[in-house]
Amino acid sequence: MNDAWPAAWRLLPGYLGEHIILSASALALGLAISLPLTVLAVRRTRIRWLILAMASIVQTIPSLALLALFYPLLLMLSALSLRLFGHGFAALGFLPSLLALTLYSMLPILRNGVASIVTLPPAVIEAARGVGMTDWQRLWRIELPLAAPMLMAGIRTAAVWVIGTATLSTPVGQTSLGNYIFAGLQVQNWVSVLFGCIAAAVLALIVDQLLALIESGTAKRSRWRIVAGATALLAGVAIAALPRTTSSESQAYVIGAKNFSEQYILADLLAQRLQQAGASTTQRTGLGSMIAFQALARDELDVYVEYTGTLWANVMHRTDSPPREIVLQETAAWLQQRHGITLLGSLGFENAYALAMRRDRAQQLGIRTLEDLARNAAQLRMGGDLEFFDRPEWSAVKRAYGLVFAAERQFQPTFMYRAVGSGEVDVISAFSSDGRIAADDLVLLEDPRQALLSYDAIVLLAPRRAADVVLRRTLEPLIGAIPIETMRQANLSVDRDTEKSTAEAAARWLNERL
Length: 514
Description:
By secondary structure, this protein is of the alpha/beta class. Helix content is 63%, strand content 11%. The protein has a five-stranded mixed beta sheet. Helix 17 links the parallel strand 6 and strand 7 (407-410). The protein starts with a helix and ends with a helix.
């Protein structure tokens, strides 16, 4: 971990700049929407409750869910725009994050704005009317100036919320300080997690104090405070907006990765191969499975590593479980025909789901196969990753073997392995290429009825890259070149924090052995 801190500092300008631009844009858009709604709510008491209720409802939706929900919505709108006007727009990254964060910013601004105006002393309002002020004159000359300190307090709250929530934009493809946190959690790089948390907290604190300076300026009618605070905020946004890429980097290959350590390693492996060939690369990591696939189909990614079982069950919606070779062939044909995506080939290993137990526990109960497990399941506790219990494979296994456990619990993969190791659960949904299987002395239970799908790791190319000679020539040597034992060692080096503690270092180690 000696190089973890320098590596984190090296990434800071890019991550911080993107985070600031996203947060500032969302807060500015939230203000632009909330202030007119505040005036409307004050003037129209009949709809005040509706405006505040809608803003409150948004807050009840989990942040990550709201961010994810905007992606399919924008996909549909982009397709409609393409059909009507001949032009679509990117549905991945900045736009869904901006819209979700804008909604999250509105409630404190609306509540404080409405409360600060409707609670003004009636005598002040009557005096304004008595001197003949119109509603708009009263609003601009009396109500808003008097409400400004409390309104600024709402803006401060909104800014802190937005900066914190922006760290969750990583799974929809937006670079932010959340990249430190999501990547660090998956590869157990606690320095990265801590660095991301500290950076987000420091940014929120600085912004909050600058807004506090403006707030005190409005309360004390101090122009210099207002100017100083606003100038510092605008300067920070301007610096964050400075270009950080060269023209060659803007033409870089965009490599995607999902949200677990093997994907980070393979994305770095692809990047290193392309860089060795003289190409520029950039990465979008921490993506959900469907988001990564849809982004590739829309040419928002150029290449990423997927698994045949994921495509077969989740994208193609197939419920059968044919032999591995047939799954690979039919998946390749379907991808090309339906989406123009090229399946370059399999890397040579599978990362399939498999139910695993501690060896001593399995031997104690006499369990070697899923049939044996079914006879003991009622007294056992099952642990799965965050999506396993919603996947078709789980339904297929339950149907095939009649599995009914005493309890089912979900974990982030790192903690799932720790749970089975500590005896907190008895069985887990392990991954066949995971090095922790051997390291933790786990045994994979046999699947005699072949209910579990094959999961070949495959390289996919976006439609626009189908004829890209450089990309094909550079990546084709990887096809069939990675044995599962080698991949397990690379994964273990990251998951267990050995000398190859980062995904980049593990990818470099892997690259040297191919």
